[in-house]
């Protein structure tokens, strides 16, 4: 896990927690969300966009938290994301990747962290899923600094939730 030295110039956004049930594997091995086990939940907390300036160059850091609201430890290796650029009324994918969750195993009531560094400010960021222990937990949350980006994401991807990045 890398730790970043944060500059005084920071953009913060705090979202309402959203909980997701733990998935199960179907008969053919595909992952499907578990809806009958409310004791195993994940809650995404703060999502933060931080702009750092080093000389003439900027870089952007996305940091988030995930809390285990269940009664069993959960192993979460990564958070999958897709980055999009707004082109008129559509979003075009420009990048995809994974952010590592630390610690990998989150005990009940405890929180893990994840983050990613970008060279350009993401226009639209879709958090796709958490993965670990051969399972995927769908998230499907979208973040954008513009209303158009959030609305386009909601329409194009039928997301559960869309949230803004804060502006100074």
From the N-terminal CA to the C-terminal CA, the straight-line distance is 28 Å
Strand content: over 45%
- The assigned structural class equals mainly beta
Radius of gyration: 16 Å
Main sheet makeup: 5 strands, mixed
User: Average pLDDT value?
Assistant: 76
Low-confidence stretches: 1-40
Number of strands: 13
What is the percent of helical residues? under 10%
Please tally the helical runs, counting DSSP H or I stretches of 4 or more residues.
Answer: 1
Large-scale geometry? globular
Kindly describe this structure.
This protein has 168 residues and is mostly beta strands. Helix content is 7%, strand content 54%. A five-stranded mixed sheet has the order 8-7-11-12-13, with helices on one face. A four-stranded antiparallel sheet has the order 1-4-5-10, with no helix packed on it. β7 (78-87) and β8 (90-100) form a beta hairpin. The longest helix is centred in the C-terminal third of the chain and has 11 residues, at 147-157. It starts with 17 loop residues before the first strand and ends with a strand. Residues 1-40 have low confidence and may be disordered.
């Amino acid at each position: 896990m890398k730790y970043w030295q944060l500059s005084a110039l920071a953009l913060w956004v705090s979202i309402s927690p959203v909980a997701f049930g733990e998935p199960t594997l179907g008969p053919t091995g595909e992952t499907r969300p578990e809806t009958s086990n409310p004791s195993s939940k994940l809650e995404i907390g703060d999502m933060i966009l931080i702009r750092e300036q080093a000389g003439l160059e900027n870089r952007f850091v996305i940091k988030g938290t995930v809390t285990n609201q269940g009664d069993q430890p959960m192993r979460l290796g990564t958070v999958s994301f897709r980055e999009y650029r707004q082109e008129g009324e559509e979003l075009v994918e420009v990048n995809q990747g994974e952010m590592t969750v630390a610690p990998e195993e989150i005990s009940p009531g405890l929180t893990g962290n994840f983050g990613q560094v970008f060279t350009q400010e993401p226009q639209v960021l879709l958090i796709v899923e958490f993965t670990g222990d051969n399972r995927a937990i769908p998230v499907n949350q979208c973040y954008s600094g513009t209303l158009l980006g959030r609305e386009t994401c909601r329409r194009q991807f039928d997301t559960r939730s869309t949230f803004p990045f804060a502006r100074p």
